[in-house]
Design a protein that fits this description.
Length: about 325
Amino acid sequence: MNSAGIPQRGWQKISRLPRAIRPQPAAQPLRKPPWLRVRLPTGTGVARLQALLREQRLHTVCEEASCPNLPECFSKGTATFMILGALCTRRCPFCDVAHGRPLPPDTDEPERLATSVARMKLSYVVITSVDRDDLRDGGAGHFSACIRAVRSRCPQARVEILVPDFKKRIPAALRQLETALPDVFNHNLETVPRLYKSVRPGANYHGSLELLQRFKEQHPHLPTKSGLMLGLGESCAEVVAVLEDLRAHRCDMVTLGQYLQPGRHHLPVQRYVPPAEFAQLAEVARGLGFSNVASGPLVRSSYHADRQAEGLVVQPEPH
């Protein structure tokens, strides 16, 4: 058994998946189309934010998951904080986050996170985490501690949490979150149910829908949100069916973006979805009643999250 805290990436991470679902490198990877070219910003914002994150010993999903929008977001002083360490207990082959045996939760992390939010002068904060199947509540209690710390230090900041599926710990997780509710509750379905076994091994499509619905039933005044990656082999009809399922489970907001292969051992891209198709799916989603839809090749679940939540998140009364 690997020692705690040792990261596994690339082939080391993927090789332990069952052979039937282990990704095979594409003989000829698809060439990226022009609409996926990212213009790198100039200035010192990226380096300044990275220095702050290293100083506070914080992780971001932007860095750990190799997000293509990192230069833009970091240059503007925004980031999606990733709590509970940088090692995930799962081996999802679409994701660049390292797998391994995580260390125990860092009890000082909530205060360091709140300090960073204050120094960055953020008005909208997105907090996500690795999967922590080793914890009885899936890490929900740590999410609550982070929300409390941010609210104590930065009472004007709105907080969105992008949570894992909590697997069979949904009741325990939701009880923990009762102690410090977010302003937006986000959980990504990621793909269509037919592809779950190969894209999200260890996850359950209907379990993820249940998590979104149960949170909404308990807190009907708070917006819920989910997201999908396209280009993994799903059909347009399957995407529409997922959108219908999300609305049937009372999900308010949705994001649709292009899957990009992080490395040669990850799932290969099956298709680059053109912007016009993203626009068509956005119209379908709006027609289904989503209160906000972000759909485009470079859209990610937390990309421009503050704009996505505009008008849905209740702002505090000025003092």
